[in-house]
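Z., the sequence and structure:
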Amino acid sequence: MLEKLHDLGLKSSHLYAAGFASIGVSVVSWLVSKKAENTHRADRWGIFVGEWAPTFFAMGNGLRTYEKE
């Protein structure tokens, strides 16, 4: 999968940026959901989006190995 992403022109810096962006989106979605709904649902939504960040960072690390070759 990482080789295919590399072949498509995706760089590790793109995935790192997506990881940091997902942290921001997690906070914003938690704040918005907390005002619109109850606290329990806002917490679940914020955690769900927040789990994307480690995935993007891990994929960025993996893709970095293809950039070094």
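The chain has one domain: 11-68. Residues 11-68 form one domain.

Let me know what you think.
H.
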